[in-house]
Specification:
The chain has 526 residues and is mainly β. The protein has 3 helices and 36 strands. It has helices at residues 26-31, 194-210, 500-503, and strands at residues 22-23, 34-35, 39-40, 46-55, 60-69, 111-114, 120-124, 130-135, 142-149, 154-160, 169-173, 179-186, 224-225, 228-229, 234-241, 268-269, 288-290, 296-301, 314-319, 326-327, 336-341, 347-352, 364-369, 374-377, 389-391, 397-404, 407-420, 426-434, 437-443, 449-456, 459-467, 473-474, 492-494, 506-507, 515-517, 523-525. The strands form 10 sheets. Strands 2, 3, 4, 5 and 6 form a 5-stranded antiparallel beta sheet that branches. Strands 25-26-27-28-32 form a 5-stranded antiparallel beta sheet, with no helix packed on it. The radius of gyration is 24 Å and the shape is globular.
């Protein structure tokens, strides 16, 4: 059985000698900042991210907003820390040079810009002058807007946008800047005109809170996820206009409610009905997206009658102004999710499974042609799951993460160029470009830089950047193609190092890989 191992970079930071360190404890783990996904500004100069602070005494977790400059010219200022890929089984080749350090130019410009309230789930406005975020400071979870000074990288003001009784999160700013999409858990029986629906949901919430009866009645399965009951509500997608009132400070104060909301604009429910849109999922990439012109939304939902035994999530499209939703993946009875429009608007990329009802089936990367209504599998002979993914600005490639043995490598697949395999089958060109255990991919507007999170056994999440202009390594199945083992991965650099001080004082045992041949001759690695 032929196998090639991609040897990924092992992230290391120069710390004091082991003699000066103490063992890593539970209390140390609680002091680590939890770095979340990077969000690149429209001008490509900044990266926003949230970092969660844990207070063990108060038993709280609070996210705050940070910013760091994105240096899109780092490849001209550094050496080559690329990794060589060699053949082998269970014996990764070490990188040819040490990992990049935060020496004052990479990651040295990071700073906290919202610290007086919790803030996470950051999303830029198309003009780069504002960004949206989720905060529980007032009225539970709501969408807020922050003004951003691109010259200084600072927040100059912030205000609450939504005032919805059923709370709001998961926001997306439309590419045309006119709307914000968000998720709210509402009562499906309240579906109707925006004002009436909001009043109905508010009244039912009030009745529930004031009721002396705590018992609940369930008539179908999936009434609870982990420790949270659904309480008869469904997740629906809402859209609210921006610049009409709630976000336009030039309008007269009489146009606003006492809380600063808009008298003339109410969020509109785009996914009415007794279905979850999006369905329950354990984090990861968004289950919905805006089209590049801001006029359409593609979302994930499961409309099967027995959802407890179904994995049949489908993709639907709906106009941003409302209307009937169209199922574009009805032919696949397995899972379809995480849609993402191509920048040129011609395609929708998404993940799909092939075996209905089988939750552990391999996730493939699919391409839906919006005009022809045709689908293509970009990872037909790829042997691993596809994780998070992002489009290149020219719509010619998609970058995606995928677990390979004990790494989670970043690959690139071309959306048009094909190669003919030994079996005479045409396939899309795929290559490995960044090693390590990576996720949360974001591409700079000029298409030259990729920002992402990376973690390891001995280090928590930090944000890195990589130059995507290198060739990487041909990897049709996920392993390096036969005869191409001496290729090199692309250059990469550390952007943040929020936990460097704490980690420099502690010592963690190193992990060793092991492997063996399992059933059917498959290689198993731990």
């Amino acid at each position: 059985m032929r196998r090639f191992l991609i040897a990924a970079c092992v992230v290391a930071v120069v710390f004091p000698s082991a003699a000066q360190k103490r063992p890593f404890t539970f209390e140390d783990m609680m002091k680590l900042k939890r770095v979340e996904e990077p969000v690149v500004s429209p001008d490509g100069k900044w990266v926003l991210f949230a970092a969660v602070d844990v207070d063990l005494t108060a038993n709280t977790k609070t996210p705050h907003v940070w910013v760091v400059p994105l240096d899109t010219h780092v490849s001209q200022k550094r050496g080559d820390p690329s990794t060589t890929l060699r053949a082998g089984v269970g014996h990764p080749a070490k990188a040819g040079s040490s990992a990049p350090q935060d020496d004052g130019t990479t990651g040295g410009g990071k700073r906290e810009i919202i610290s007086d309230q919790d803030a996470e789930r950051l999303r830029w406005a198309p003009d780069g002058k504002r960004f949206a975020f989720v905060s529980t400071k007032e009225g539970g979870s709501q969408i807020w807007i922050a003004d951003f000074d691109g010259a200084t990288g600072t927040v100059t003001g912030k205000r609450r946008l939504t005032h919805i009784a059923t709370e709001a999160d998961g926001e997306l700013w439309s590419p045309d800047g006119k709307n914000i999409l968000f998720v709210s858990n509402v009562y499906p029986e309240c579906d109707g005109a925006p004002a009436e629906e909001a009043a109905c949901n508010g009244q039912k919430l009030k009745q529930s809170k004031e009721s002396k009866v705590s018992a609940q009645i369930f008539t179908h399965l999936l009434y609870r996820h982990w420790n949270a009951y659904k309480e008869g509500r469904r997740s629906h997608l809402f859209v609210i206009a921006i610049g009409v009132c709630g976000d336009d400070r030039r309008r007269a104060l009489l146009d606003r409610t006492a809380e600063g909301g808009c008298l003339h604009t109410s969020p509109r429910d785009l996914t009415a009905g007794d279905h979850d849109a999006p369905p329950f999922h354990l984090g990861g990439q968004d289950m919905y997206a805006f089209s590049p012109d801001g006029q359409e939304i593609c979302f994930t939902s499961n409309h099967d009658e027995d959802q407890a035994t179904s994995t049949n999530n489908d993709l639907f499209t709906v106009p941003v102004n409302g209307g009937p939703a169209k199922n574009i993946t009805a032919d696949n009875k397995a899972g379809d999710e995480t849609p993402l429009y191509s920048p040129d608007g011609k395609y929708i990329a998404y993940r799909a499974q092939a075996r209905a009802g089988y939750e552990s089936d391999r996730w493939r990367l699919m391409l839906y042609d919006r005009k022809a209504a045709e689908k293509k599998d970009l990872t037909d002979d790829f042997e691993q799951w596809v994780g998070s993914f992002a489009w290149s600005p020219d719509s010619k490639a998609i970058y995606f993460s995928s677990e390979h043995l004990r790494h989670q490598i970043i690959y690139a697949v071309e959306t048009s160029s094909k190669v003919t395999t030994e079996k005479g089958k045409a396939e899309f060109l795929r290559r490995a470009i960044v090693g390590g255990f990576n996720d949360d991919l974001a591409v700079s507007p000029d298409g030259k830089t990729l920002a992402f999170t990376r973690m390891s056994v001995t280090a928590p999440n930090e944000i890195y950047e990589a130059d995507v202009r290198g060739d990487g390594c041909p990897a049709r199945t996920g392993d390096v193609d036969r005869g191409q083992e001496n290729c090199s991965l692309n250059k990469e650099w550390l952007l943040t190092s929020l936990n460097e001080q704490l980690l420099s004082q502690t010592d963690m045992s190193s992990a060793e890989a092991f492997g063996f041949t399992g059933a059917h001759g498959d290689w198993v690695e731990g």
